[in-house]
Amino acid sequence: MIKSENIMGILQPPVPETDEAPENDVTNNTITLPLWGRLHFVRDSQGQLFVSGVVAYWMFGTFSTIFVLLHPAYEDGHVSLPVVYGFYAVSGLCLLSLMRASLTNPGRIPSYDFSKHAETGWTLCQRCNRMRPPRSHHCRRCGQCVMRMDHHCPWINNCVGEDNHFAFVQLLVYAFLLGFYSFILLMCHFWVFPKCNSCNRDAIYIKHGIWFMYVDFLLALNIMFMMGVMVTQQHFHLIINRTTIETMLKPPKAKEITVRQTYTAYRELCGRGLPLFWWLPIGRRRPLLPTSHSQNV
Ligand SMILES: [Zn+2]
Ligand SMILES: [Zn+2]
């Protein structure tokens, strides 16, 4: 039997030569759309309802800010063009990272035979009947094992794991920034900008604009608070190299906590490539092995 390569005491699974998913990597959650190709879409009606709510939240927040506040303020000369484009950019990046986190397989165990590479720490999933590396868990909602599973998030209708954790963190950051951006604009709208001159006062969204702005204000406050808490929690977990599920199953004692370098933690999360591109929810993530499969507990 050929012994598999073991670097730093961590088992290395065989890495496929190609970035393309092989044909037999199709799961029950795989859908194929024209132009988009193959996507991961979890068939869970409750999760689909939750993610639809998130998209509706984004649409209301974005469109009410643009049409009731930003465009009239720009036409009246209260804000400059970079402020308008800045809002478009943050809002677009927020939606892109939501799609990326939701429509990416969170970390499927590859279909090649891992069992012959199994060593201590590898376990057999009773449901998938497949060997899986340490830190993998089976998710009932997704119906699959997920490598380095963090948790199942109903708001994105997907698990957060090895292959989409970076997109999830991007989503938290962009959602926070979008809430913060809207909050600042709303404060200016309420306290600084005079009433709009150039806007069409007959338009229904301008006529009832104040109610759009009140709701927008509550949404912005809520998302800033929620995302602020989540980003802090995710950052803390990243630097101590633990997942949410690991902390829930076995909360660490203070003396067990070791803090690693922030750069190392984010490089493992975002993969190889320039740090400048770590925050762009486009392009393919190239995992940084073997640390991304390292065992913590
Ligand atoms: Zn499984
Ligand atoms: Zn899941």
Automatic annotation (TrEMBL):
<dbReference type="Pfam" id="PF01529">
    <property type="entry name" value="DHHC"/>
</dbReference>
<dbReference type="InterPro" id="IPR039859">
    <property type="entry name" value="PFA4/ZDH16/20/ERF2-like"/>
</dbReference>
<keyword id="KW-0472">Membrane</keyword>
<keyword id="KW-0808">Transferase</keyword>
<dbReference type="InterPro" id="IPR001594">
    <property type="entry name" value="Palmitoyltrfase_DHHC"/>
</dbReference>
<keyword id="KW-0812">Transmembrane</keyword>
<feature type="transmembrane region" description="Helical">
    <location>
        <begin position="82"/>
        <end position="99"/>
    </location>
</feature>
<protein>
    <recommendedName>
        <fullName>Palmitoyltransferase</fullName>
        <ecNumber>2.3.1.225</ecNumber>
    </recommendedName>
</protein>
<feature type="transmembrane region" description="Helical">
    <location>
        <begin position="171"/>
        <end position="192"/>
    </location>
</feature>
<keyword id="KW-1133">Transmembrane helix</keyword>
<feature type="transmembrane region" description="Helical">
    <location>
        <begin position="49"/>
        <end position="70"/>
    </location>
</feature>
<feature type="transmembrane region" description="Helical">
    <location>
        <begin position="212"/>
        <end position="232"/>
    </location>
</feature>
<comment type="similarity">
    <text>Belongs to the DHHC palmitoyltransferase family.</text>
</comment>
<keyword id="KW-0012">Acyltransferase</keyword>
<feature type="domain" description="Palmitoyltransferase DHHC">
    <location>
        <begin position="123"/>
        <end position="249"/>
    </location>
</feature>
